[in-house]
Amino acid sequence: MEGEGVVSFTEDRVTRNAFRLAVGFVAFGLVLRAIKFLLHYPLWGDEAFLAINFLDRSYLDLLRPLDYGQIAPLVFLWAERLMVGLFGFNEASLRIVPFVCSLISVPLFWDLSRRVFPGASWASLFATAIFAISYHPIQHAADVKPYASDLLVALILLNMAVRYWEQPGYSRWLWWLAAFSPLALAASHPAIFVAGGLTLGLFPGVIAQSKLRVLLPYLVFNLATACSFCALFYLFISPQGSVGINGLRDYWAAGFPPLNDARAFLGWLLKIHTGSLFAYPGGGHGGRSAGTMLLMLLAIGTLVRSDRRGLTGLLLAPFGLTLFAAILRRYPYGDEARIGQFLAPSICLLTGLGVATFCDWIPRPRARTMARRCVVIALVVWGIIPCIQNARRPYRLDYDERSREFARTFWAEQGPDVELLCVRWDCGVGTRTPVHPSNTAYLCNQMIYAPHRRSTPKPQGIGRITKQHPLRCVFFNEKPVEHDDFVAWQTKMSKSFKLQNSRVISIDMSNYNLGAKPKFETVRILDFVPLSDGASFGRQDGSTRLR
């Protein structure tokens, strides 16, 4: 173990203790991701915006632009739709796909790190450990968003490229890249940056081979990538993004560089490269990821000095392409780690090498061994602390939990004694109001805890509504713009029903980022009993179908 060279990548021996520790970190990473999934945390706003599209859409319907301006890759949408069809609409079924992707990613990354650093077991260990316990891959391991699948697709592409890079005279892995590229782009939008980066990174080595058996699959890989991207973009991505792309560009504004001032551009670069995008194993905005950036620079220098420029190109080219897309205002660079998960493999590999190189600089063997042990212990602790915090508070916002608790209480517990009706979604009242994440979370929670309403949203029979068994209506999130619709609906109801009881529930939204908006969400509950036989109710358009 002592004196193992990290800079020399020619050593064949693998330190047994480092190997065992790496296996332990792989298992640790799997456990952390399983705990995240099993916490059964409520849907948060962005998840609900996407999840609501799986309520009543078929596979073909998912080819159309998604509701609420959502953008997601086709394979991910179909996989989610399959899980909902098999296991129902609930938090667990919605999170199976990203959870499985996150589980596969951990051992796959370990295999990748061993190939990238074949003679440097400590570099492989530290990279694997950082990937296994880093906050963002765990945080998004079960989110109903394509972040975990973006990461998995990037890992598969990079693994194939590195396998070719190990044996550049053999073209088998280039053919695999060509075959997998269309599926990768259909499963992950930012995979185009990874595939394009591999094209640039592999180019010098392919040209140096000057062999048709290498050039041909390389050209097929590029052709398959280009054709697949163009087809997906014009047939699926562009129509899908036409609904909400302007809003997303505003939301992503911090991820686009200022181009009218060189000093501001350089300041933006410094901010991005020391911010959330590079928060591995931890860090964040305000320069808190500066340590990771310094370790990556140290690793890049190590690779260049050891004449591994081809590997350096494979790892760094996707960053350059993503930055170029940000300059064109097509995709954000940095700002939020979740939309840059496809860059996590390169960041963790370089950071792990940086840590190993730094430890290798320590001249005294005993001190070097102690430094490595301290790093391992620190990484274990770093993985445990967020896990404990997540277990104590698994939801992102207190509001998310309060919203789910309301759904559990109202839709699941009150059903037997009353006929339940959602004024907003069953009768179309208030749907002119701009949709807020809370509206979609409300509907998703309603469908999770009252699944029968997907097929029978209206009361089962008007004859069941009596003074002892009233029609209980809930009007969610009433705002002034909805008032006229609500009054008109009440007037219509008064012709056949008598208002027996009315109450208001306020859901605290004080920690929701609402700016000047109200801090409480209003839920008005009204009980109606029939005036006479033959009473009727319905949507403003005359139908009773759930929205």
Shape label: elongated
Report the average pLDDT across residues.
85
Number of helices: 20
Q: Tell me the number of strands.
A: 4
Structural class: alpha+beta
The proportion of residues forming helix, as a percent range, comes to 55-70%
Descriptive account of the structure:
- By secondary structure, this protein is an alpha+beta fold.
- The chain has 2 domains: 16-392, no CATH class; 398-530, no CATH class.
- It is built from 20 helices and 4 strands.
- It has helices spanning 16-38, 45-51, 74-87, 91-116, 121-133, 135-139, 147-166, 172-187, 191-209, 212-241, 245-251, 262-273, 290-305, 309-327, 344-360, 365-392, 398-413, 423-427, 437-449, 483-494; strands at 419-422, 471-476, 497-508, 520-530.
- It has a 4-stranded mixed sheet with strand order 1-2-4-3.
- α4 (91-116) runs parallel beside α7 and α7 (147-166) runs parallel beside α9.
- The termini are far apart.
